[in-house]
Design a protein that fits this description.
Layout (H helix, E strand, L loop, with lengths): L3 E11 L6 H16 L8 E5 L2 H4 L9 H4 L5 E5 L3 H13 L5 E9 L6 H5 L8 H4 L4 H15 L5 H15 L13 H5 L18 E10 H7 L4 E10 L12 H14 L4 H4 L2 E3 L7 H8 L8 H7 L15 H4 L6 H13 L13 E8 L5 E8 L4
Parallel strand pairs: 2-3, 2-4, 7-8
Antiparallel strand pairs: 1-5, 1-6, 4-5, 6-9, 8-9
Helix pairs in contact: 4-16
């Protein structure tokens, strides 16, 4: 198979970027091109990641093409999570038709729309949507309670997970929701939402965008001396929520297994140096990590107490602060890949994991972790 690498990234995240979506994308992409020493003419194909509901109009990418430089160029769009958009760009380069692909994900979920409302439209239109009891937040709370009860864990586990992510996010210049002094006690004292979730357990509404440049083997080596190679990808869509055990995620497991197989990995927990997971709620982090086989089922309390997921722990989880630091809808998964890129190129600053060579990025879409995508990246070509 044709080898494909990530050769550059840039991102912007804020509660309110203070500008239009088009201006946000123009400034980000123009700055990226200038930093890479390229122009839009060096891009063979563009993969945009946005959502009609989030944008507030149909064909959400229609006003994105010009500011990102995709006008009069080959361009397509993915509406789901950003990892899926990166996977699509990978496939386009592997086809042999393109040498470079630019992935751009974006959302203005801080200043223009509310992500919770968008997720309402993923529910059953004949029952759940009409009943009005479930939404993204209440669904996440039900899943959190299902996980905690399944393994006899207390709510303080979520406080520990959130505190770690918030402290990490405070050191990440590409995040905005960090809290350097976050403790389990301070998280527990944040506003109560749906039991057992509190404000600090949940992703912040975010204006943001992320850009990644992918290139085939020869072009990648021309563009950078630190290419990050995409070694494996996996994707899986689970059944609707009443038909499955919410304390676990079969689709995370299947997506991970497919990515690991493609990457030639037999012992992911031993071969990965870090993971960046799209845990929009603190309760989702252990479900994702356990589904990937990185920790034993129901071990969230032990992992938190022993610091196994810390930056210097046995398996660093979301050293960037993850989705609790910033989560631009659609760009969330692109950001997870970008954070892996930063780690593997040694550009993660105070969040750098020592000797990081192989990482995993995870993205999700739908309620209750219904749709999951996994990407394994490495400094080694394979």
């Amino acid at each position: 198979m044709r080898k494909v690498a990530i050769v550059g990234q840039a991102q912007v995240n804020a509660s309110d970027v203070g500008k239009s979506r088009e201006r946000m994308l123009f400034d980000l992409c123009k700055g990226f091109y200038d930093g890479m020493g390229i122009t839009r003419h060096d891009i063979d194909t563009f993969v945009l990641c946005s959502n009609d509901f989030a944008a507030g109009h149909t064909i959400s990418n229609v006003f994105e093409d010009c500011p990102v430089g995709a006008y009069m160029k080959d361009e397509t769009k993915v509406e789901a999570d950003g990892v899926m958009a990166v996977t699509y760009a990978l496939a386009r380069i592997m086809s042999g038709l393109y040498d470079t692909a630019l992935v751009v994900g974006n959302s203005q979920g801080g200043s223009v729309m509310r992500p919770y409302l968008v997720m309402d439209y993923t529910m059953s239109p004949t029952y759940d949507r009409q009943l009005g009891l479930l939404n993204e937040l209440s669904s996440a709370a039900l899943q959190a309670r299902a996980y905690l009860d399944a393994y006899g864990l207390g709510d303080e586990v979520l406080d520990r997970i959130a505190a770690r992510n918030l402290r990490n996010a405070a050191k990440n210049p590409d995040a905005f929701n960090g809290k350097a002094d976050a403790t389990p006690e301070s998280v527990a004292g944040s506003d109560k939402l749906y039991e057992p979730l509190k404000q600090d357990h949940c992703f912040p509404f975010t204006d943001g965008a992320c850009v990644l440049l992918l290139a085939g083997e020869e072009k990648a080596k021309e563009l950078t001396d630190k290419p990050v190679w995409i070694r494996g990808v996996g994707d899986s869509l689970d059944s609707y929520y009443p038909e499955r055990n919410l304390a676990r995620s079969k689709s995370v497991k299947l997506a991970g297994e497919r990515a690991f197989k493609m990457a030639g990995m037999n012992d992911p927990a031993g071969e990965l140096d870090l993971v960046e997971v799209s845990a929009k709620f603190a309760s989702q982090e252990p479900i994702i990590c356990e589904g990937l086989g990185l920790f034993a089922e129901g071990s969230a309390s032990d992992v938190a107490v022993r610091g196994l997921a810390e930056i210097d722990g046995a398996m660093p989880v979301s050293p960037s602060g993850g989705a609790l630091g910033a989560y631009p809808l659609c760009a969330g998964g692109v950001t997870r890949v970008a954070e892996c890129y930063k780690q593997l190129t040694g550009s993660a600053g105070d969040l750098q994991v020592a000797d990081a060579r192989t990482a995993l990025a995870h993205g999700q879409d739908g309620l209750y972790l219904q749709h999951n995508a996994v990407m394994v990246v490495s400094t080694e070509e394979g």
